[in-house]
Structures are given as C-alpha cells and as structure tokens.
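Human: Cast an eye over this sequence-structure pair and say how the chain folds.
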Amino acid sequence: QVQLVESGGGLVQTGDTLRLSCVVSGRTYSNYAVGWFRQAPRKEREFVAAHAFSGPNEYYADSVKGRFSISRDNAKNTVYLQMNSLKPEDTAVYYCAARLFLASMTSDDYNYWGQGTQVTVSS
C-alpha cells in the first residue's frame, strides 16, 4: 500500500504564492509517478501537473503552465507543487495521486490518492 498526505493549502489573494506538499510513504517511493489534480465545487476533477518516477519529466495542464511547477525531493519522499500568480479560478481541493513509473494526465490511471488540501484564492 501507498499512503499520500497533502499539506500547504490555505486562503490567499490573487497573485499570491502557495507551495503544496505531498508526502508519499509505504512502498518504494522512487518507483512512483506522482500527479496533482484539483476539483472545484460542482466541477469534475481535473489534471494539474505530474512528475514521472525518475528524470526531469514533468507535465502540466495548459491552465497552469508557466505559473505552477512540480518537483520532487526523493530524500524526503515528497512531491511539491509550487503555485505562483494564483487566480480565483485556481480555487479547488487539490489532491496528489501516485501510480507506478509513468506519469499520466488521467485520474483513472492513478491507484493511490491523498485526502486533499483546500486552496482558496480571493479576488
């Protein structure tokens, strides 16, 4: 089993910065690709960013490209989502998810999920 715990959400203003963290535990962390997804009220869950299990392979949704950055610290079993220039439309519950090896932009491809962390951006 793999457990994921997100943290770092909060209430911020437009243009502010947040960094979300996702601690992965339970199995060989380095074998897992990790993705970030978000779900706003009355909307479907959508892909935000993903990082492959190794190498510099990163993927981003068009809506966050240039503003968000995903990174991983294998020594800490942690994946980060750096969110800059936040907008009200970024308001959502953010989830991290893990799957073996290959990153994916499809939520159904991920086997393990965290409980989510709320991000609220006020205008």
